[in-house]
Amino acid sequence: MENKRKEPRKDIAIIGIGLKISCARDLEQYWEIIKNKIGCTEDFPKYRAKGVEGLVNIFNDSGEEPKFYQGSYIGRIDEFDNEFFQLSPREASLMDPAQRIFLETIRNTFDDAGYTAERLKQSKTGVFLGYTSSSLKDNYIVDIALNHPDLLPYSMTGNMAPLIPSRIAHLLDLKGPTMVMDTACSSALVALHEACEHILSGNCEMAVAGGLKLNVMPLILDNMKIGIEALDGKTRTFDSGADGSSMGEGCCTVLVKPLDLAEKDGDLIYAVIKSSSINHDG
Questions:
Q1: What is the rounded distance in angstroms from the CA atom of residue 70 to the CA atom of residue 54?
Q2: Which 3-state string (H, E, C) describes 121-155?
């Protein structure tokens, strides 16, 4: 019987990184947080609490002052250059803020890698997003439906999760596959795994992959707790003092392509992915 040996897997290079989290807007700031052990847990920003008052009043029927979880929050989620992304002011304002943040982050990732819109146009580039569906109280379109129902017809596309990666692909005329991965906490890593698999299978020549999470209304409600919340609102990963997880939000994406092509094209290489695998829970 003929012994067929599998071809070795190609290494995948990370050639661009973009991020937007509570305390950092780029990789250098993020590294300073890690290096100096800076905590990013804070109160929910007052301007954001005011922006969701209409939604809070619907869920908070206790008559008491609403309380929000402490967490790592992105400061300004209302700032967006709609003209740069070829969107009208109304369409941009009705988009889920998570979609706007993803557009900004993914463009920063391409910029970090040195890829212009002209260079990306009609390229076989895929977009893979890890994004867990929001709960009812964190769903932006619920606020629109309850407080501005007349605007619903104009807001549907800006609030559909599957269209988040497709929007940037349309804007930049990318020809690779686009999809959303939802495997709860492992969504971002599963998105990266799928990006690598699609590159190796030839579906795309390079890909952007990452994760996205935004807490529109982190209102503390006893009937919506699931029992894993940290008592002091702080996550202590792999620490003996850990007693639960806390609220956090942000977006991070990486641009990946085969290592041999990255070396040939002279790309800056941050790291190399030797292999990846996936199981029933990510």
A1: 20
A2: CCCCEEEEEECCCCCHHHCHHHHHHHHCHHHHHHH
Q: How high is the pLDDT of residue 158?
A: 87
Per-residue pLDDT tens digits for 185-219: 899 999 999 999 999 999 999 999 999 998 888 88
Which segments of the chain are extended strands (E)? Answer: 12-21, 71-72, 125-130, 178-181, 206-213, 247-248, 250-258, 271-273
Average pLDDT of the chain, as a whole number: 89
**Cβ of 30: how many Cβ atoms within 10 Å?**
17
Alpha-carbon distance of 185 to 192, in angstroms, equals 13
Give the DSSP letter string of 245-270: B-EE-EEEEEEEEEHHHHHHHT----
**Which of 88-92, 93-97, 125-129 is predicted most confidently?**
125-129
**Residue in the block written with tokens 């939000």:** 249
**36 CA to centre of own chain:** 25
Asked if 91 contacts 154 with a C-beta cutoff of 8 angstroms, the reply is yes
